[in-house]
Amino acid sequence: MLQSVITVHGIWTKVLWQENVAPVLYPHFKPVSVKYPYYRWLGPVDLVFEPYVLVAGVAAWIVSRFFEGPRHFVDAHTKLLLFLWLLLAAAITFFRLGNALRLIRKEVSHAIAAGAQPHIIAHSLGSFLIGRALRQIRPMRGHRIVLAGCVLKRRFDWQGLLNKKSDAFDAIRNEVARKDWVAGTATLLCWRFPDFGSAGRNGFVGNGSFIHDVSDDSQSCPHCLAAGVAAKLHNFISDHLGHSGVLETSDFASNYWLPFFLEIEPSEFHLFLRVCSGIVEGLPIAVTGRAAGKLDDEQFKKIASKLLLRKWGWAGEQNIDQYVRTQIQRYYPGYQSDPRRMDDLTKQVIIGVCRAVDDARDALSEKLDEPRKGERSADQYASAARDKRIVSLNPKLAVKKALQTSVEQESGA
Asked: N or C, which end of the chain has less CB nearby within 10 Å?
């Protein structure tokens, strides 16, 4: 059973981003879209005043102008009627948000019952709902959480939440967009929603060892590297994006959110993909099955050394040769008695990994470029033939796949 990634949309949106992100997540994870039929069109006005209550109140006031008795009554009790009007709007909002929370809880419960805490992606009002759900609903759990266009207050007590519920989440990635005027003005609604704030524009603040700021999405957190311990929450800051900037294409999800959920540093993930593609480009056609690239011997040696000598985090800080050998010993212990066969198999597996990873990149690109008519439905994230190749974007699965293939080829030789 695949681990779920639950996506929760915000207000003022057609929520197409959930369907655009789903093909990136699958086949590594099961995409689950939580959709609630509120707050789609009028934005903050819809959220604060509730359109039906607003229209009904305005209509009642207009009608009262034509009748003397109702007009005098309205004029004499304006403050009381306004208070009752706002109270009714608040009650409807409470009901609607409560219903949205129930939908989230339902999907999280299903995911946990299937065997794993789900990952979560929440945009705009969705971030508010996730923060409230984690704090107020006891069974609510998330593993890794992405917040985009976050409208929570900057001092939302994530650390206090973990102190009370230690497994509430494992890590949070907060996408901070300096041009996000929606998150920037969310503080103005704190009188209505006390947890509202500008974390999506200015980032969360708190304990320096718990929250780190990162100014480059493609780099590892320098503070975590210096401390040797990963912070629980990172603000990834962009100076040029707006409220929904990270949702406009699937690229951001494939470049940053996918490795985040795979628990691989994006910088390491991208380097591994580039190195594997470079290896394939430099290998002879007899090995790769396609024409070799333009790499000379010196270039190829540099790329090969990056692959072979670097200690990879996803491999438990082993180089790839060490990691492959541990996997051979684990699944095919018979090779230990013959060092020469072990060496030959290790080399074949490493080449197989590079080929599988390079092919997986191509397959994902093809999948995301597929023309789709109209809006994508919730189940249009699968591409059977390509997904079998795409799984190798996960380095561990690429090794497992290459190892199995190499052993089968040797056995059949």
From this structure: C
> In sequence order, what DSSP letters do the residues of 179-216 get, joined into one string?
T-HHHHHGGGGTTTSTTB--HHHH-----TTTEEEES-
**Amino acid in position 250:** S
Q: pLDDT by residue for the chain (413 residues), tens digit each?
A: 899 999 999 886 666 899 899 999 999 999 999 988 776 666 666 666 666 666 667 777 777 777 777 777 767 777 776 777 677 766 777 777 878 889 899 999 999 988 889 999 999 999 999 999 999 988 899 999 999 999 999 999 999 999 999 999 999 999 999 999 989 988 988 888 899 999 999 999 999 899 999 998 888 899 998 888 899 999 999 999 999 899 988 999 999 999 999 999 999 999 999 999 999 988 754 444 444 455 567 777 888 898 999 999 999 999 999 999 999 999 999 888 899 999 999 999 999 999 999 999 999 999 988 755 444 555 678 888 899 999 999 999 999 999 999 999 887 65
Sign of CA dihedral 351, 354, 360, 362: negative
In eight-state DSSP terms, residue 275 is H
Cα–Cα distance, 392 to 121 (Å, whole number): 23
Q: What SS3 state is found at 366?
A: helix
Just give the CATH number of 4-263.
3.40.50.1820
Segments of 92-170 assigned E as strands: 119-123, 144-148
Q: Give the C-alpha separation, 295 to 111, whole Å.
A: 47
What predicted TM-score, i.e. pTM, was given to this entire model? 0.88
CA 326 from centroid of its chain's CA atoms:
31
Residue 268 neighbours by CB under 8 Å, 6+ apart: 220, 259, 312, 313, 314
**CATH 3.40.50.1820: which residues of the chain?**
4-263
